[in-house]
Amino acid sequence: MTHIAELTHGLAELKLDLTQEQIARLESYLALLAKWNQTYNLTAVREEERMVSYHLLDSLTLVPQLAGGTRLLDVGSGGGMPGIPAAIARPDLQVVLLDSNHKKTTFLRQAVIELKLDNVEVVTNRVEAYQPEQKFDRITSRAFAELAEFVKLTRHLLAPGGQYVAMKGVYPYEEIAMLPEGFGVAEVVPLTVPGLDAERHLVRIVAQ
């Protein structure tokens, strides 16, 4: 199966109705990621064909979980997952990609320019030092830290009534048990990634 066929098939399984332009941007992002990964070590997944399920489709499982959100912060964005695929799928969403690694944010800025993503801002900073003018109603991460650490480092960035939408592998029982006081789990959503035989869960955390 070609990349575009796998991506199109996966989008149908996820029930995401994207335009041809959006699909083309996802493909362009994949090509950029594969090209820059040779030098910048953005992801351990080297084969482009595996990147479709591991990165694009995995990131896109977040999109249906962002309903009601207008500002998304992707903490420790790395190569842009899940922020860039989410921004492509939801052009109405304002997305900030935050990472302290200069090489990675250099790639992210180039990707934003080449993909013409007007709804994306790239910030090079440590999360605990980041002080934006406007807070976020949705904060996500894919491989940044355990849930307790994630919440502690970003609590100053969550808008009133906002939610964490943390992407995890297996059901994180122990991590949930360690959440700091004042925060609780609203729900844990099992996610199915087309073409990926691995457990995935989204943990929705809210201030109590």
TrEMBL record:
Q: What Pfam families does UniProt report for this protein, alphabetically?
A: GidB (PF02527)
SUPFAM superfamilies given for it? Answer: S-adenosyl-L-methionine-dependent methyltransferases (SSF53335)
Per its record, the protein catalyses: guanosine(527) in 16S rRNA + S-adenosyl-L-methionine = N(7)-methylguanosine(527) in 16S rRNA + S-adenosyl-L-homocysteine
Q: Name one GO molecular function term.
A: rRNA (guanine-N7-)-methyltransferase activity
* This enzyme's EC code(s): 2.1.1.170
Q: Does the keyword Cytoplasm apply?
A: yes
Superkingdom to which the source organism belongs: Bacteria
What Gene Ontology cellular-component terms does the record carry? cytosol
Residues annotated as binding S-adenosyl-L-methionine:
G76, M81, V127, E128, R142
The subcellular localization recorded is:
Cytoplasm
Q: Which InterPro entries match?
A: rRNA_ssu_MeTfrase_G (IPR003682), SAM-dependent_MTases_sf (IPR029063)
Keyword vocabulary terms for this entry? Cytoplasm, Methyltransferase, rRNA processing, S-adenosyl-L-methionine, Transferase
Family (UniProt): Belongs to the methyltransferase superfamily. RNA methyltransferase RsmG family.
Q: Sorted alphabetically, which PANTHER family does this protein's record hold?
A: S-ADENOSYL-L-METHIONINE-DEPENDENT METHYLTRANSFERASES SUPERFAMILY PROTEIN (PTHR31760)
Q: What does the function comment of this entry state?
A: Specifically methylates the N7 position of guanine in position 527 of 16S rRNA.
Name-wise, this protein is: Ribosomal RNA small subunit methyltransferase G
Q: Which organism is it from?
A: Pseudogulbenkiania subflava DSM 22618
Give the gene that encodes this protein: rsmG
